[in-house]
């Protein structure tokens, strides 16, 4: 088993890695925006009780 890929195979391998990282980053941004929207859409509750 060769640890180093054939140089002609290296570029497609790097391109797939970059695409995977771009996908992960996009999913993280989407999840963060979804969480922010969910938090902001919740009604504000005043828990103070007048006794």
How large, in whole angstroms, is the Cα Rg? 23 Å
Measure the end-to-end span.
77 Å
* Oligomeric grouping of the chains: single chain
Overall, the morphology is rod-shaped
Order of helices and strands: H
Instruction: Look at the structure and give the mean pLDDT.
Output: 82
Point out poorly predicted stretches: none
Structural class: mainly alpha
What portion of residues is helical?
55-70%
β-strand number: 0
- Fraction in beta strands: under 5%
Largest sheet: none
Q: How many H/I helices?
A: 1
Structural notes for this entry:
By secondary structure, the protein is mainly α. The chain has a domain of 35 residues. The chain contains 1 helix and no strands. The longest helix has 35 residues. The chain is rod-shaped. It starts with 6 loop residues before the first helix and ends in a 10-residue tail after the last helix.
Short description, anyone?
The chain is an all-alpha fold and 51 residues long.
Spell out the blueprint of helices and strands.
Blueprint: H1 7-41
List keywords for this structure.
single chain; 51 residues; mainly alpha; 1 helix; rod-shaped
